[in-house]
Amino acid sequence: xxxxxxxxxxxxTILLQKNLLKELITPQEWAYTxxxxxxxxxxxxxxxxxxxxxxxxxxxxxxAAFEQRYLEMxxxxxxxxxxxxxxxEAVDAFGIIVTDxxxxxxxxxxxxxxxxxxxxxxxxxxxxxxxxxxxxxARAILAKSTNQKVAFFSSEENSVDGRSFQxxxxxxxxxxxxxxxxxxxxxxxxTHLVMEVSSQAYKxxxxxxxxxxxxxxxxxxxxxxxxxxxxxxxxxxxxxxQLIRNSRQMILNRQxxxxxxxxxxxxxxxxxxxxxxRSEADYIVQDGIDPKSFTIxxxxxxxxxxxxxxxxxxxxxxxxxxxxxxxxxCLAGAHASDAQTELPQVVIxxxxxVLEKNNGAVIIVDYAHNYLSFQSLSQLARQLRPNxxxxxxxxxxxxxxESRRSDMGRALSEYADKVYLTSDDPNFEDxxxxxxxxxxxxxxxxLHVVYQMDRxxxxxxxxxxxxxxxxxxxxxxxxxxxxxxxxxxxxxPGDLILAQRFAVYEQ
Length: 507
Known about the structure:
Layout: E1 6-7, H1 8-17, E2 21-25, E3 30-31, E4 42-43, E5 45-47, E6 57-60, H2 68-76, E7 81-84, E8 94-98, H3 101-112, E9 121-126, H4 131-146, E10 150-153, E11 157-159, E12 166-167, H5 175-187, E13 192-196, H6 199-203, E14 214-217, H7 233-245, E15 250-253, H8 259-268, E16 273-277, E17 283-287, E18 293-297, E19 307-310, H9 316-331, H10 336-342, E20 353-357, E21 362-366, H11 371-384, E22 390-394, H12 403-415, E23 418-421, H13 431-440, E24 448-451, H14 455-465, E25 471-475, E26 482-485, E27 488-491, H15 495-500, E28 503-506
Parallel strand pairs: 5-6, 6-7, 7-8, 9-13, 9-14, 10-13, 14-15, 15-16, 16-17, 21-25, 22-23, 22-25, 23-24
Antiparallel strand pairs: 1-4, 2-3, 2-8, 10-11, 11-12, 17-18, 18-19, 20-21, 20-28, 26-27
Helix pairs in contact: 3-5, 4-9, 4-10, 11-12, 12-13
């Protein structure tokens, strides 16, 4: 990647154009035009983490928890200029004061990194469940058609060279990180980018101003609702729908809740769209003769995707995710034959891992954490073991998405025979209290509830008691080998590792 640079004059011009500039501050004056003492400022790096600040860094003071001491740390490390929503007159540094720090990040970052998004074919994927699976499917198809020239940003891992992968921190990276990663991808010769786009990415303006070539809207149901995320479902849905307004072409699930609203949003904003689904769609998805196969048919097959496809993953819901990925990849230049070759090979870390005990009981390890994902896994479980019991091990994360807890209780009531309510990243909350909130929404007497806050003990007990016709779902942690407790990551063997100790077969 070439060394990027931007001048304070360029920044002022950009902020003025976007009506974001409040004032420019020097130790001597406040100004709206560029003070003479600031004219020589040029920046060779952007950051919001004071530990990464250095000489010629433009430091962004962002976040509700931001404190002046972070700015002072950045200055001590060499930064001489900051950008913020309020002046910090007590610090010895120049200030660029803006009306919205996140919007400022979203317009400065692409200018600094040379608008890398314009040099990539970009696919953005959103939905309450299935984003990661769809992203992995689309990446695999395009990797085949482009000879591995696909950058990839997901909740699991990121890649800027199409071949090596690093663990992800956020579903959608922070703005400065996002554009830096895109610039690295372009420098590495990538031609395409597949990425998950979370509702929080729009809520916190991480992707403000970014237009995707292709947007995919998988589904919607209440999730991520709570004091630190979305206050209401309406806000959650509105943020999800921003992908439509910021895409040149959309792919919609015809059976998604609120489909008429999604369709109208496309129409009002003149965004062309195609649909997929089980019925009434442009492209019809039907299950095949075995649980891993499906077909796509169409009255007018413009994309030439009709045919039979095979997955390496179980679950009819994955057929729909894969169909959406096929449509997106083919719109981006791939061919259906690439999908038929690559989809059977796709493995997604910690998702839909199916194992079998020596007595025949089935164990499923997945990151499922909301109503839709619980429902999909439970329906699959009933298909695999129709005559046995369905045993769940689950909890819910602390400090976010409180609405999930009642939804989990509702889903468990509909499908499960027994549930071990346990710890799942409780952070600063009491896991027993979280478990009690889940249990409070259970509406059936036939569901046996066990409270076991030691997750390892809960997982071990559930698997140990499973008989030949039973199925155990370990939900929420996947391959993660830690639990977030009181702001720290405490070591945990991991659901998958624990399950593999009992397993004699893995699909």
